[in-house]
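Q: Entry one of two.
A:
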Amino acid sequence: MKKSFFSQDVGRIVAAALSEDIGPGDITTSLLIPEDKAAEGIIRAEEEVLLAGIWVAEEVFRTLDPGVEFEAFAADGDLLKSGDKILHVRGKARALLTGERVALNFLQRLSGVASLSRRYAEAVKGLPVRIVDTRKTTPGLRGLEKYAVRVGGCWNHRYGLFDGVLIKENHIALTPGVAEAIFLAKGNVPHTLKVEVEVRNLEEVREAIRGGADIVMLDNMDIPAMREAVCMIRSHKERKILIEASGGMSLDHIREVAVTDIDLISAGALTHSASWLNISMDIYETD
């Protein structure tokens, strides 16, 4: 899995995480470990893991010790079982001890997102639908978490407020209505951007079609209403309108939603409900 442009700020993210943890200095390590002492460490999975973020963990140690050496036993996107080695690190003992927690935090968090995303992708396997993430991400880690979503086989929605027009319920509450909000957006948006609108019922679906929406998001609709909305939108032959389902998209009914002939399912759970996975690091004195 290739790193994306979301990874361009990884140095800044790692530096902020290290600063938060180290502060003015790692007191325990500085008291116990000589500056010139060398060590090595093994990072391994302690449960089934779809690996994501190994290059972020490497950046943690590289920031603390530019001369650190790595031997990777796995790559992002690999499915590991408990006990599998991930990374062998050799370098200054102080750097390994000081960076351990931050490196593991990134690996545990990103691998958790990737592993949950894999379960979602598997749940709709064989169907012509994409599972996409949302902006419900950890502040400061959005790029890395969206990367992990793709490692798991799902897709990214818009990155932020700046790269897509998405008219939501609260926007509509402050405008004359669904169609009018779409008219206003399409009258001012560059031709390179699509306009998506969130709708909650069939009347708003009709308004979205009339307004010329490029994407209609069916928000928190039950399955019968969703099927009817899809039929209404698909019957509009003048142009292709993408259909997205959103709201409470849990694993236990994601496939039922997917077979309604929608194009996209947005699931905030990919990031906000992903568990941290158990990944450990053992550090040894270099022979």
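Q: Entry two of two.
A:
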Amino acid sequence: MARTQARFACQQCGAVHPKWTGRCDGCGAWNSLIEELPREALPSGLGKGAGDRRGSRALGFVGLTGPSLLPPRRQTGIAEFDRVCGGGFVAGSAILVGGDPGIGKSTLLLQAAAAIAPLGGLSSGQTASAAYVTGEEAIDQVRLRAERLGVATSSVLLAAASNVRDIIASLDREDAPGLVVIDSIQTMYLDTLDSAPGTVSQVRAAAQELIRVAKRRGFVLVLVGHVTKEGVIAGPRVLEHMVDTVLYFEGERGHQFRILRAVKNRFGATDEIGVFEMSDCGLVEVPNPSALFLAGRPTAGAKVAGDNAPDGSSAGQVSGSAVFAGMEGTRPVLVEVQALVAPAVLGTPRRAVVGWDGTRLAMITAVLDARCGLSVGANDIYLNIAGGLRIVEPAADLAVAAALVSALRETPVPADTVVFGEIALSGDVRPVGHTEARLKEAAKLGFTKAWMPIRRGRRREQAVAAGLETAAIGHLSELVERLAPKRAPRSQPLDRRRIGVAS
């Protein structure tokens, strides 16, 4: 019999190597290869008639239409969580929830399980609605958290186990719970594999077995996944391809706001977000995230700065701030873009970006320098998206440019104005989608003006219907003209070339 040969699998990307090396050739990670013994040799192939000898049978193909045995979506009662999932849980689906340690993954899932499970315990003959299996904590620790959250009276079944064989033996039956939470998948292991829990082979095999029984019995499986220091779920990337939905928790641990984002969803929209606030009673949903992200700014419907100030100063108006009307999935969200432009002390200008793409910031500064005659790129630039939200859509280009020019010219953007639009390398401002939803959200929060690209009459009708006064910006130089300083700015030797600004 041939001797079983060991292999080395990368714990970051899952690539397999015949021998150990210090650096993985697949992803470039150092010291990520761990020796693993293969479970069994793969078959050499299926020859002619081999399927009949193995007892295989033909597949029973069916059409796209027909009766379904699965129940409809089941809602947890947590509106923000149901929104991210696409309207509720789909029976037989597998959901992967990832996030930094201590951000609130276990808290939210315990709240969701308690919301689904009935109160006061189970009656005779009643099927359990939710089960919580923990591999990291003891039963008493989970009970303490349930008492703190105020859900100790719900009939959630608890178990502390990490052996996948025992878990499947308890779930593979007709009266299986409707929702099963596994916290976490990195602690689960199969006794048929020689590798330690948390390795690539264990995570992949354990998830595969749990997903298989969830599909067969029709219950919702929620897997909690650890994340690496780069912010991705630990283990092989194939784990995200095996599940139906991938949710990520975003936000700083020292900040009370948490953002749940759908990165992948086979039953709903991707990039959908749910906003929560961490309190002493757990995670509380925030129904109006736009008002949350704009907290601390002057009232949108207030007069221009200086009218309400007793001394006539520009109180409440700060340069380098612009309100962006964005879209997160199917929801319009208004966030504040903050920028600070300072003279570069060292030879190389510094760039610090929080909540946005640093590469796209470099492109915007290059367009401002080349097409508008500004010297933005020669300064230190600090850009921040308030509230801890991360923006990925290109419609934020115009808002970022408005914040940069406002900081450079020391001219505040009007407090009752929202800005959105995509900037091309030529300096042209291109239209973006979901204009009507953006304008309606801005009007609901008291904004009266919108700086946006208007190319067609229909977009102007949308803005008029929303009750907003629009300003058509076809080129980035028009934005620079609108932010011309009303007074002599402080000494800025790097901003000598100006286009469209009266001397």
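A: Comment on entry two: DSSP finds 13 helices and 21 strands in the chain. The chain has a mean pLDDT of 82.
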